[in-house]
Amino acid sequence: MPRLHDDELVIDDALVRGLLESHHRPWARLPLTRLESTGSTNVLFRLGQDLLVRLPRQPGGSRMILAEAHWTPRLSPALSVPVPEVVAVGQPTPIYSEHWSVVRWIAGDHPEVVLPDGPPSDSEQLAEDLAAFIQSLRAAPIPTDLPESDLPRSYRGTALADLDPAVRDNLARCRALGDFGYDLDAAEHLWEEALRLPGAAETTTACWYHGDLTGENLLVRNGRLAAVLDFGPSVGDPTVDLVVAWQVLDPAGRELFRERLGVDDTTWAKGRAWALCISLMVWYYWHTLPGRRAAQVAVGRNVLADAGL
């Protein structure tokens, strides 16, 4: 498997077997298969028929593992679709420095990425299901008996203006790649327009949001949303969860998604800017994750087409 990060931890079958042996010996005898669809944050191994092992790729990954284990059982009953149930959390050991988790396996396929010049994808049902999931997550109560510092936070729940230095840097890095796949000058223009939107320098809403609601973290069965993965929710401005509209929904599905969520023009433009921002991060995985590269370039193209650029 490709090395994605400079500080990548060494994770292989022998390591996972050893961790399982020390944590719960019967699991160590189950079939173990490393998944090709492993993402950039965790390495994934299917364990037997019913379980999945998730191990952070980098030092510091314990934070997300522990947040998922803490918040998933508290929030999952309120959600419209399942999220992976955390069965166990493994402790750091001398051979692996991070916490790791075992979750229930959920069957399904990742939805196809939509292209701006592709045929209609009949994504209306998926749009309905995604909107229902977001609504159920946003409606989940935020605990009032905890100090603010104990609530999970992420930069993806902050104001657009806070992202400007990173976006400028990512634009330069994407330009250095040469034939990028969409018009980066138009992308920069769209970003600058977004920074002039009302409220672009502030956050006005605080609720639960997923933060990485993309095709890699969705499972579908028979055209319906079956599960949402990587469920490490945060509290903040939920606009970033709109980005999924420009990846897996065609224009008709996108409009239905927006209607169901009741998104006004300003918030929609902010969501589009978030989608562009995340698309521009793709330079980091340009040579190592070709599937993600294609998906994020498609997002950028959809964003520009949606903005008429």
TrEMBL record:
Pfam families: APH. InterPro entries: AGP_Transferase, Aminoglycoside_PTrfase, Kinase-like_dom_sf. SUPFAM superfamilies: Protein kinase-like (PK-like). Residues 41-274 form the Aminoglycoside phosphotransferase domain. PANTHER family: AMINOGLYCOSIDE PHOSPHOTRANSFERASE-RELATED-RELATED, BIFUNCTIONAL AAC_APH. This is Aminoglycoside phosphotransferase family protein. It comes from Candidatus Avipropionibacterium avicola. The lineage of its organism: Bacteria, Bacillati, Actinomycetota, Actinomycetes, Propionibacteriales.
